[in-house]
């Protein structure tokens, strides 16, 4: 194939396509093992063993092992299932943080010193809390399969929210005072951010290849973790400052 200036564009070689397929298979394999709660060191061992076997056999992962999901499920690897208390320690502060953020956002944007809780607004809050609470269960649905499935699900939720907002936008369920609502939401946000920052059971679980020491923690990853813990609090503070100073 030639371009307009006469240059020839090389066609993709079979080796190039095979390399891309192999990389995609191993990416899917690692994701499946993560979804099955396999520890990082065990994932590293499984990946290294699979690569070694492929090097000896000369085949592709799909030909030798079959689909990545089925092969990952067939392996007898250790699992560290998150106990219910550990899952609650993650989900409860997340949901409370979202609730505090919504409270601060509604309070600082009010113009008459009160927060009118409408039916569409309450449904938006409940939808956000439900998505946050069900995120661990929905992770496999979003990661596996074609991209259109999660996109269609999110579009359906968004469409329902818009329809309810149009049909019931004037339905006020109850009214709250703005200042106590903002203070309570800010206190909840601060508490959940501090909880996420200083709780002790958040050790990283990197994927480690056999006989290789774990990499040192980088400043960028540490900063990313800190920003993740304080993201909602900082967003609420910025929103409050913008409404108060405009």
From TrEMBL:
Keywords: Membrane, Transmembrane, Transmembrane helix. The chain crosses the membrane at residues 88-109, 121-143, 150-168, 219-245. This is Uncharacterized protein.
């Amino acid at each position: 194939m030639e371009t307009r200036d006469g240059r020839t564009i090389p066609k993709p070689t079979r080796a190039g396509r095979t390399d891309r397929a192999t990389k995609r298979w191993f990416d899917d394999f690692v994701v499946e093992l993560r979804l099955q709660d396999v520890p990082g060191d065990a994932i590293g061992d499984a990946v290294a063993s699979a690569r070694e076997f492929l090097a000896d056999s000369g085949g592709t992962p799909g030909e030798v092992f079959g689909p990545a999901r089925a092969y990952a499920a067939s392996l007898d690897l250790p699992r560290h299932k998150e106990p219910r208390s550990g899952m609650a320690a993650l989900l409860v502060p997340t949901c409370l943080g979202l609730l505090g953020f919504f409270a601060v956002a509604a309070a600082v944007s009010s113009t008459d010193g009160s927060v009118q809780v409408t039916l569409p607004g309450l449904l938006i809050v409940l939808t956000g809390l439900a998505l946050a609470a069900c995120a661990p269960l929905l992770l496999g649905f979003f990661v596996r399969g074609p991209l259109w499935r999660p996109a269609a699900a999110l579009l359906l939720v968004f469409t329902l929210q818009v329809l309810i907002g149009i049909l019931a936008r004037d339905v006020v369920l109850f009214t709250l005072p703005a200042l106590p609502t903002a203070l309570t939401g800010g206190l909840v946000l601060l508490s959940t951010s501090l909880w996420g920052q200083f709780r002790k059971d958040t050790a990283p679980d990197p994927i480690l290849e056999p006989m290789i020491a774990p990499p040192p923690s980088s400043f960028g990853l540490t900063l990313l973790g800190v920003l993740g813990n304080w993201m909602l609090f900082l967003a609420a503070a910025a929103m409050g400052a913008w409404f108060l100073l405009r």
